Amino acid sequence: MTATGGDHGRAVARLGRLRGVPVEVYVPRGVHPAAAAAIAAEGARVIRVDGDYDTAVARARPAGPLLVRDTAWPGCEEIPGRIVEGYATLFAEIDARPAAGAAPAGPVVAPEVVGPGSVVLLNTEGTLALRTDGM
């Protein structure tokens, strides 16, 4: 179970599907219908919450035995820390590609998570975009 603004919930849903584990994903009212549909397409039960992201997290916390969250609070830092480790692995793999001789196919895009379900994209041409649609 998790709370999400988009991508995190979809990733948890996919892992649940691959592992045969049922997943519930709590989404705040502002999540785009396409993002919620993408989460459901991964096999998760999507539960809409009438509130913001923090409200969705609060609703998800007592709902099940394991909350796979991307936010931390005192005493609950292990799982979010592992998610950050996953991002670090992703960027280490991106950094290693040029060293291995693999040139990018086109402009390089560097995503940066700036909030739940929001990513800033900066490419080598200097274009900046904020995506909040669950990409």
TrEMBL record:
Offer one Pfam family short name for this entry: PALP
According to UniProt, the name of this protein is Pyridoxal-phosphate dependent enzyme
Task: Kindly give the PANTHER family that the UniProt entry links to this protein.
Answer: DIAMINOPROPIONATE AMMONIA-LYASE (PTHR42937:SF1), PTHR42937
InterPro entries to which the protein is assigned, alphabetical: TrpB-like_PALP, TrpB-like_PALP_sf
Keywords, A to Z?
Pyridoxal phosphate
Cofactor(s) this protein requires: pyridoxal 5'-phosphate
Q: Where is the Tryptophan synthase beta chain-like PALP domain?
A: 2-95
Which Gene3D superfamilies does this entry report, sorted A to Z?
Answer: 3.40.50.1100
